[in-house]
User: Fold this.
Amino acid sequence: MTLPKFILGDNTAFPNAIFVIHTEFPRFIINLENDTVEWFEDFDAEDQKELEMETEHAIKLATDFYDAEIAKYDE
Assistant:
């Protein structure tokens, strides 16, 4: 099965949260309510440095995806 790079998610237990799931490496879920990121990968110390550099970019991509999806609802 081919998955989209980003998926929107919500959960009634977190009524104010807006989740974006990134399905490609490095896989993560971000809560756009507070920019909390949960990684689905295990990283070693060397990967951690690269991950820190990529985190800002990954969050930007997730936020851009969300904005584009919401704009489609407004059309």
Notes: The two ends are 30 Å apart (CA to CA).
